Structure prediction request, 375 residues.
Amino acid sequence: MAQVLLEKVSKVYPGGIKAVRDVDLSIQDSEFVVLVGPSGCGKTTTLRMIAGLEEISGGSIKIGDHVVNDVPPKDRDIAMVFQNYALYPHMTVYKNMAFGLKLRRMPKDQIHERVMGAAKILGIDQLLDRKPKALSGGQRQRVAVGRAIVRQPKAFLFDEPLSNLDAKMRVETRAELKKLHRRLKTTTVYVTHDQEEAMTLGDRVVVMKDGEIQQVEHPLKIYDRPVNRFVAGFLGTPPMNFFTGMIRYRNDGVYFEYGSDSIRLADRWKDRLSKYKDMEMVLGVRPENFSPQSEGKVAGRDNAMKMKIEVVEPLGDKMDVYMAMKAHPHIVCRVDSHAGLKEGQEVTLAIDIQQVHVFEPGEKGINVTQELNNM
Prediction:
């Protein structure tokens, strides 16, 4: 086990294409860190540079106490689990797991001890005589993980290992990986485009876009306090709703005006938003921060929006409701399935103004209320 440290790491491909830009990241010993972001954001390239499968164009990578910029992958003391499992089809499960140790000329009794130990931890000790074609997708993935475990490396690197599994198996295997990490306590770097995996697995989550790190933090802190509009919109299912409008001050408080309507913002934001007075800004509201109200309850309130329901998606105890209002045709809220909302219905939704966010304009507009949220 070891710390993994990236300092000003960059990757530039021929033609000047910058895949990764000056990434600084410190992954602590025994920590489980997840790199997440849209396709092309640089997360897999970053992982491959840690593994030594991609040469870095600048900066340094340290694993433990050693800079590994020029160290071959086989000498970095890491183990990587790939998306496609990369198992040898002609070998049994046992031989697949033992293969890397045999190449290192480890004694047979030690190989057997490690393979049997890993197989028992993963619950595949009854599958050791089978070949990969006789295994399910989840079983193959456990074999790939087992092959990494037996090496007892300083760090595990996972490259979207669950993407080939069905939804049910992804959830089950995700839980197994989390339990496995708690047991082994091996430093782990995990790449995914699935924000749900990132939120549930990571001790910390690294959100990337355009080769740059946008935010590094505990998953719930990122969710509650996104540093900018991109992070706010990327993490969360359904995604955050955004409204473009103006910051206005009146005698009794600060308001967000959108069209002919307005929402009174939390009083604790008065000072912070004063420099944005009469400027165009973006209001962010998560789907769960809307709540349907009867007309009697919202009469005279200034934190409500009137909308028309277009699509209702039942999800069991909750449902996602897609709505439209003037100038904002795509709005989604998540409410209790027994709220009685139906397609075509006009509805008034109250907003929890303590939980909304205000961003500067632009895709990466900073969250100007980040530090004041959830206080």
